[in-house]
Amino acid sequence: MTYSIVACCPRTGQYGVAVATYSPMVGSAVPLVVGGRAAVAYQVVASPVHRALAGQLLAAGASAEGALAELATKDPYWQSRQVTLVDMFGGVAGFTGANAPAHCGHRLGEGFAVAGNVLTETCLDDTWKEFSATQGGELSLAERLVRALEAGARSNGQPEGLTSAALLVHGSEPVPLVDLRVDVHDAPVKELRRIWEFVGPLQGFYLQRKTNPAGLPRWWQRRMEVVPGWKPNHLVKVVPQQ
Q: What is the bridge-based pairing of β-strands 2-9 and 38-44?
C-alpha cells in the first residue's frame, strides 16, 4: 500500500525520505532520518518501535546491512515488514517480507533505495530511474526526492489511489531542513509538490530561525524578498478562516 525512497546526498551530506501511500498519516508512520547519519523507511505494517531501533543502530555507526540483520532478529513480525536503509557511508540495504502484498519489492541504487507494495509493476522502476537521472547535478535532495515520488505517481503507483505523502530531509543539524506531510488528500503527491514549491525558498530562513533567530524578518517578509511578485494574503485580501 506504500512506495518510498530513502537517500543520501554526498554533495551536501543530507539524508532524506519521500513516501506516499493509500493509508492516511504516512509521515508519522514510515520515514525516519538521523541528521548527518542515516535514513530509514519502515513499511507494509509500519512499526515505530522498530523504526526507532533502526535509527539508534545507524546513529551508533552500524552499517545499513548490519542494522537490517539486527532488526531481523529483534522484530517478531519481520515477514510483515518492508525496510530500506541508507547509512552514514552511503551504504544501502533493503528487505521485503514474505507477507508483503503484491506487487511488491525493493531496489537498491548508489546511495539510495526504493521499495513498495500493492503497486503497478512499473512504479518502483520509474521512481528509481527518476532519482538516478538527477544524480551528480545541482538539484537539492528534497527536490530530487519529490521528483522521484512524482514519477512513481505518474505510473499510477497504487491501483487504489493515494491518500497521504511525506517528505523528510535532514542536514547535519539536529532539526529537519524539510518536514512536510499531506495526511488526507485525493492527490497527495501533487499537494506535496505545491507545499514544497511554497516553502522551498524558505529552507535557509527556517533553519536559521531554529538556530539563531536574532534580527530575522517575518516569514512572509523573507518570502517576498526571495520570490519576486509574491504577496501574502494579508497584503491582498484576508481569506475567511471559517
A: unpaired
- 114-124 per-position pLDDT tens digit: 999 998 889 99
Distance between CA atoms of 180 and 189, rounded to whole angstroms? 11
Cα separations in angstroms, 78 against 48, 49, 72, 220: 13, 13, 6, 46
Q: What are the structural domain ranges in the chain?
A: 2-214
Phi-psi region at 127: left, alpha or beta (left = phi > 0; alpha = psi -120 to 50)? alpha
Is the CATH number 3.40.50.360 carried by domain 2-214? Answer: no
Is this prediction's pTM over 0.90?
yes
Cell of 150: 512524482
Region for residue 215 given its phi and psi (left: phi exceeds 0; alpha: psi -120 to 50; beta: otherwise): left
